[in-house]
Amino acid sequence: MEDSARPRVAIVGGGIAGLAAAYFLGETGFLGETGASVTVLEGSARLGGKLAVSPVAGLDVDEGAEALLTRRPEGTDLVRAAGLAGDLAGPATTAATIWSRETMRPLPRRQFMGVPADLDDLAACGLLSPAGLARAREDLGLPATAREGDVAVADYVAARFGPEVVDRLVDPLLGGVYAGRAQELSFEATLPALAAQSGRHASLARAAATLVPAPRPGPGPASASGQQAGDAGVFATLTGGLGTLPAAVAAGSGAAIRTGAMVRELTRTPAGWRLTIGSAHAPSYLDADALVLAVPATPAARLLAGLPGAASARVALAEIPYASMAVVTLAYPADAFPSPPGSSGYLVPAVDGHPVKAVTFSSVKWPHLHAAGPGLVVVRCSLGRIGDEGVLQRDDGDLAALAAADLAAATGVGGRPAAVRVTRWGGSLPQYTVGHLARVERIRADVARQPGLAVCGAAYDGIGIPACIATARAAAGQIAVYLRERSPV
């Protein structure tokens, strides 16, 4: 069937969510036998959003996300569908530590995003002071903590275990994922599985224990996600870097791809939607039967301006803050370290005042990187938390030197790195602050009133790659239902 006879769908945003939505809508069988005629409009010069890869010391190293969870199948399913199954690779180790009070400590083996599931295990790690550990043990005997609606992670966890567990464990893990702070992030939105279990157990430790594997013999450390060191299969990457996934998905989608195509305005038409693209001096237009917005909350709110019935969604989108961060990638000769790094990386509590919040030893974590550069240790240092953007105002040279000095203090690495790359992700990580779920509900209710409109991306149900792909599939499904009902096959 020619494109003129197929329904036309425009997708605004060429990150992984927008590209996944294009892939699903173009699939044979997803929308009739031929799929839709899809156009992806990306305002920047490249596809991929926060997925990008570039060389460091001759090795292809991700600049943004470097791993996806395999427990959710959406990510690996799309990788396989895009023809990259042969490039899937698992980590050599996910064991992680925490640099707390200037000492490297193992993470508890049994914890769920820092919430301890075994208080004897927590004690063995030496992360807490004697007073902090005694307070944490009170969780087992305290009556249930009342929770009326959504609360901040820090408030609920501190009510159960005391503030030291928040500062030394929970906040570093959430900071590593969201570049956010436990004092502001929503318990219901960021830890939904634990929030659900907490309603069934008075003790939060017992609630967390239902979500982590049973203890195994041996002293092996935990991964940063709370998995034991033997659970490497929970993560995967691509040997060419996860930054290679967007191009493969775009190619497999069959969509028309336009980069440098900034959408400035949306207008309802009798037949669907008209998109205004480009500058006010020389605009172009695209007509579509249906539309998917796969952009961050702020540009989504701007594009919904002027649409009748979308006021609540615009306000809710504007209430989603974003954090900025930077990734400083350093490559060192292996002999620059006094002893080889033995873990996949470490986290740093914000209360200790260090600029680096998390470190990944990429060439230790990923065997293909080690094999490609056996004489090098590639290290990714993450900097920047919400409300602490001042550190990111430094120029690239200063930021790299700051990261290298922090790494040296933690690991003893000496000398200058053989290669340096600084990647800045300005306003890139949505913050799921208290009330986030209610905001998302308001957004989707308003969007549902707009014929042939859907939204997807990291602003809604999770910032990981599988979660973004899941929102894309849901958005594509909504568009398919709309188009079928409008023109039954």
Descriptive account of the structure:
This protein is α+β, with helices and mostly antiparallel strands and 489 residues long. The protein folds into three domains: 3-48 and 244-320 and 433-486, 3-Layer(bba) Sandwich (FAD/NAD(P)-binding domain), CATH 3.50.50.60; 67-94 and 235-240 and 322-430, Protoporphyrinogen oxidase, mitochondrial, domain 2 (Polyamine Oxidase, Chain A, domain 2); 108-219, protoporphyrinogen ix oxidase, domain 3 (Orthogonal Bundle). The chain is 33% helix and 22% strand. The chain contains 17 helices and 22 strands. The protein has helices at residues 16-26, 73-81, 119-125, 130-137, 153-161, 163-178, 187-190, 192-198, 204-209, 245-253, 297-304, 311-318, 362-365, 367-372, 396-411, 436-448, 465-486, and strands spanning 8-12, 37-41, 53-56, 59-62, 68-69, 88-89, 96-100, 103-106, 111-112, 115-116, 235-238, 256-258, 263-269, 272-277, 284-288, 290-293, 322-333, 345-347, 356-361, 376-383, 419-430, 453-455. The protein has a seven-stranded mixed β-sheet. A five-stranded parallel β-sheet has the order 12-2-1-16-22. A three-stranded antiparallel β-sheet has the order 5-11-6, with helices on one face. Strand 9 (111-112) and strand 10 (115-116) form a beta hairpin. Helix 5 runs antiparallel to helix 6. The radius of gyration is 23 Å and the shape is globular. It starts with 7 loop residues before the first strand and ends with a helix.
